[in-house]
Amino acid sequence: MMTLSEMAVDVLTCADGREKAARSLAHGKAWFDMRKTGDLPDIGTASPPDFPARPDKPELLSPRDVPRRRPGTDAGRIALLHAVAHIELNAVDLHWDIIARFADVKMPGGYYDDWVKAATEESNHFNMVSDCLERLGSHYGALPAHAGMWRAAEDTAEDFMGRLAVVPMVLEARGLDVTPGMIEIFRKAKDDESVAALEVIYAEEVGHVAYGSKWFHFLCGRHELDPKEQFHSLVRKYFHGLLRPPFNEEKRAEAGLPPDFYWPLTEDLPQE
Ligand SMILES: [Fe+2]
Ligand SMILES: [Fe+2]
User: 109-135 and 74-101 are packed helices; what angle lies between their axes, rounded to 10 degrees?
Assistant: First the structure.
């Protein structure tokens, strides 16, 4: 029987996207089957790789070298879905990585349940978006993709609370801001399958941000820290740049992110 950390490393070291998603789903099922017995299964320890394994394609380019296409065209919508597939594949790895990398910190069972569930949802998101690409005659790997998606993970590899602040509470929360506009693009193009896939993603991503906020607040409580002050200082330390409005305040609130967490991070600190 594999420990949860070994399952995480098994996903992280798998290069192929569809195979990574399949392993992630299988391990997720195994985890929840074990949880039915009532005891917390062995979390174990394992050394996650510095970078998750990735397929030969897509070619990874610096964001400024990834060609932009107009969303009003078929090619533009394919490029958009390709970028989403790339984000989802990274998200699969990010959720397994937080489990393995910080396995030495003792956490309640529900913490592992949340990230395993999030990882299985990201695996479904990757599969759904890959299906949409294939239906449109493309596939994940057909276009270049952003390098540097793993940067937030690298920057916070030694800081558990920093990881929660930057990945679910900043990056995934940003997804809540931009997904409605994306859904509109596919609705206008009458691409019902892509609309349906993006609507599932939109609904489930609220949960991922909420897990981040929940466990961030839990750790602040454990260490008697002020959550808002901690959040501001960790985001300023590890996230490169300022947060950019407009924000989806309604969905952020649903996910446990109040406005005074993110609005102050749209501005530089006043100079001394
Ligand atoms: Fe996702
Ligand atoms: Fe997510």
Answer: 160
